[in-house]
Each structure stands twice: as C-alpha cells, then as structure tokens.
Amino acid sequence: MPILKVAQIGHPVLRQKAREVSREELLTPAFQAFIDSMIETMRDAQGAGLAANQVHEPVRVCVIEVKDNPRYPYKPNIPLTILVNPVLTPLCGTRFENYEGCLSVPDLRGIVYRSVEIRVEALDRFGNPIDKVVRGVTAGTFQHECDHLDGMLFVDRVEDPRTFCTWKEFARQHENRFREHIKELVEHYGS
C-alpha cells in the first residue's frame, strides 16, 4: 500500500469537518485500500493514530495503534483499531493532563486536558458496530484522533500556551515527570 502525504498545520483540509461514510462506500475495494494506506502511513510515521483529514481525505475515519512505539515509549499498547463515523461520549467529569504531539504539527508538544473515561461508538472497517469504554491514556489517543474529524488540532485545546515545547525540550525538561504521571494514570484507570 502506498504511503500517503500527511497534511501539515495551515493546510485547509485539517480544518474541515469530515463527512460520514456510508456502509456501501466503506465496503468498496477502493475504500478498503485507502484504510490500508492509512495504516501503513501511520506506522511509517510512527504515529499513535491517523485521521483521514490528515491524509487529505475529509471522511470520518481514523486508525489507531500503539505497539511499543519509540515515538511514544510511555504509551500503553493499543491493538490496531479502525473507527468509522465515531461518536465519543465522556462518561465522567474527570480529566487528565496529556502532553500531546501530532504528525500534522511537527516538532511541537503541549498539555491538553482529556476525559479519563469515554464511550466509543463507531463502525469497524467492515461495517460492524463498535461500542466500548476506553479509559486513561488510551482515551486521550482516541479523543485526539476524533478531534481531527471535526477540524480540530491539539493546539486548539491547549489551555496554557506556556506548555508548548519542541520534542527535544519535552524529552529534556518534561518527559520523566510525564512518564510518572502516565504510570499513575494507568495504575488508577487502566491503559
């Protein structure tokens, strides 16, 4: 499958609200090949997820996977998950501090507050229903990717712009503390 070009902040496609995908369109060979290319692109870029908007297709599809990712060594593994037309519902008012980055916003990180527990309703790549609860850091990843489908980037959710930093400075100044924070979060809520 071909590796797709990832849109960078400033490109209008990242600010578009993605359209829903019909079951008929989803099941076409062309759309299935597109999903395969999204997966390969995410893996090639060492992302934890990728939304269709990020590869210039404003449709409500995102792929998520963390498998011992060197870019996010503190993130728990997430099996490959394809979400089509996802709807996320927070299940509690508790939020956690998440230092986020994005393939579409190179070399920048910032603190975003995410719901610690969400309900995920969507279709899988074959049109089967998904209805599950996701907690902790994994819930943050799902929220980040689904924000893209509404034309939002993590930078829009950063409440304190003083938390912005480069990846290098994150590693130097913040990563150790953040790893401890993530460890506590996983112990309390699961991955």
Mind sketching the topology for me?
Layout: H1 23-26, H2 29-44, E1 49-51, E2 61-66, E3 78-90, E4 95-102, E5 105-115, E6 117-123, E7 129-135, H3 136-148, H4 154-157, H5 167-189
Antiparallel strand pairs: 1-2, 2-3, 3-6, 4-5, 6-7
Please provide a written account of the structure:
By secondary structure, the chain is of the alpha+beta class. The chain contains five helices and seven strands, in the order H-H-E-E-E-E-E-E-E-H-H-H.
In terms of per-residue confidence, which ranges show pLDDT below 50 for 5 or more consecutive residues? Answer: none
Rg calc: 16 Å
Average pLDDT taken over every residue: 95
Can you tell me the overall shape?
A: globular
Beta strand count? 7
- Assign a percent range to the helix content: 25-40%
Concise account of the structure shown:
It is built from five helices and seven strands, in the order ααβββββββααα. The chain is an alpha+beta fold. The mean pLDDT is 95.
Considering the chains and any ligands shown, give keywords for the structure.
two-stranded antiparallel ribbon; 191 residues; 5-stranded antiparallel sheet; alpha+beta
